[in-house]
Amino acid sequence: MKIKTLNYTEMGNRFSCKTKNNSNGSKSSRRFGGGNRSQRKLQSDEELLHMQALSLAIQHHQSSQRFDGSLSRRIGSTSSRRRNNPISDPTLTNPKQQKQSPEFLENLETKKIVLIHGEGFGAWCWYKTIALLEESGMLPTALDLTGSGIDLKDTNNVTTLEDYSKPLTDYLQNLPEDEKVILVGHSSGGACVSYALEHFQDKISKAIFLCGTMVADGQKPFDVFAEELGSAELFMKESKFLIHGNGKDNPATGFMFEKQQMRGLYFNQSPAKDIALAMVSVRPIPLGPIMQNLSLSKEKYGKGRRFYVQTLDDHALSPDIQEKLVRENPPEVTAQNFAGDSSNCIARWVPARRLFAQQLTAELNHLHRSC
Question: What is 247-279 written as a DSSP string?
Answer without folding.
Answer: -TTS---EE---HHHHHHHH-TT--HHHHHHHH
